């Protein structure tokens, strides 16, 4: 399963990329606005830092605007994936970009039918938002199961399931068990995945024992 970071924060991107954890990045207008600054330089830097796919989202809602913006976004790098919303114009743009060989991520997917239609329109990725479904009392992970089953039934769909709106590490384990292709994680969730209290305690004990050993044997080293 690929891991993307769901952020436009350059420090977080550099930090986790240096650990070799990142296969790509997803951004959206909310994440871009949260970071402030000049979106053009932020997008330019992200596509330089990251080798893998970087989803950059259009803000137009009609077809011709999406096409213009998508083409401009592609100039940030060869690894740009144009992100479009799950709307009729978004699907039309998805089809046009895909025919031109430009990869597309269709976002704001909340049903299996929407995922099916985005795949038909040629999307490289569909982004189902599981946390927002959980928020309204629906089962976000059930949607991932349904989409996985549908795509497995029809191998001619090459569309990858990119699980978005992930809120905690259990979502990640569940998505991996189902066989999602990608999870996109807020930095805080990826940070939590790294941590375990027994790892921390175990390391403290190792180091304390080593210090005691050195007290009686000042010349030892590794
Ligand atoms: O990638 C989509 C994601 O940014 C939405 O997350 O937590 O706002 O539902 P959230």
Describe the structure.
- The protein is 53% helix and 17% strand.
- It has 222 residues and is an alpha/beta fold.
- It has one domain (2-190): TIM Barrel (Alpha-Beta Barrel).
- Strands 1-2-3-4-5-6-7-8 form an eight-stranded parallel beta barrel, surrounded by seven helices.
- β4 (80-85), α5 and β5 form a beta-alpha-beta unit.
- It is globular, with a radius of gyration of 21 Å.
- The protein starts with a strand and ends in a 6-residue tail after the last helix.
- Bound molecules: SN-glycerol-3-phosphate.
- The site of SN-glycerol-3-phosphate (G3P) has 9 residues, from α7.
- SN-glycerol-3-phosphate (G3P) is lined by residues 6, 26, 28, 129, 131-132, 164-165, 184.
Categorize the overall geometry. Answer: globular
Helix content: 40-55%
The largest beta-sheet arranges its strands as 1-2-3-4-5-6-7-8
* Radius of gyration, in angstroms, nearest whole number: 21 Å
Content-based structural category: alpha/beta
Number of H/I helices: 11
Q: If you consult CATH, what is the topology?
A: TIM Barrel
Q: What is the CATH C level class, in words?
A: Alpha Beta
* Order of secondary-structure elements: EHEHHEHEHEHEHHEHEHH
- State the distance separating the first and last CA atoms: 37 Å
- CATH architectural arrangement: Alpha-Beta Barrel
- Mean pLDDT across every amino acid position: 97
What bound compounds does this protein have?
SN-glycerol-3-phosphate
Beta strands, count: 8
SSE blueprint:
Elements (H helix, E strand, L loop, with lengths): L1 E5 L3 H9 L5 E3 L2 H7 L3 H11 L3 E5 L5 H12 L5 E6 L2 H12 L4 E6 L2 H9 L4 E4 L1 H6 L4 H14 L6 E4 L5 H10 L3 E4 L1 H8 L2 H20 L6
Parallel strand pairs: 1-2, 1-8, 2-3, 3-4, 4-5, 5-6, 6-7, 7-8
Helix pairs in contact: 1-3, 4-5, 8-9
């Amino acid at each position: 399963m690929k891991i993307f970071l769901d952020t436009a924060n350059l420090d977080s991107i550099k930090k986790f990329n240096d650990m070799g954890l990142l296969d790509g990045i997803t951004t959206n207008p909310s994440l871009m606005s949260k970071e402030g600054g000049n979106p053009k330089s932020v997008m330019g830097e992200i596509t330089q830092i990251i080798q893998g796919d970087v989803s950059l989202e259009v803000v137009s809602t009609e077809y011709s605007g999406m096409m213009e913006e998508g083409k401009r976004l592609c100039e940030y790098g060869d690894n740009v994936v144009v992100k479009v919303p799950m709307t009729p114009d978004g699907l039309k743009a998805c089809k046009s970009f895909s025919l031109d060989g430009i990869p597309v991520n269709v976002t704001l997917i909340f049903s299996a039918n929407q995922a099916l239609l985005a795949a038909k329109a040629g999307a490289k990725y569909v982004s189902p938002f599981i946390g927002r479904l959980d928020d309204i009392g629906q089962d976000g992970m059930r949607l991932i199961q349904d989409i996985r089953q549908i795509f497995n039934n029809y191998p001619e769909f090459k569309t990858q399931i990119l699980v978005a709106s992930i809120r905690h590490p259990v979502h990640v384990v569940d998505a991996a068990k189902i066989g999602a292709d990608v999870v996109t994680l807020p930095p805080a969730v990826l940070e939590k995945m790294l941590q375990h209290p027994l790892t921390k305690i175990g390391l403290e004990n190792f180091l304390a024992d080593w210090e005691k050993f050195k007290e009686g044997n000042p010349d030892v080293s590794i």
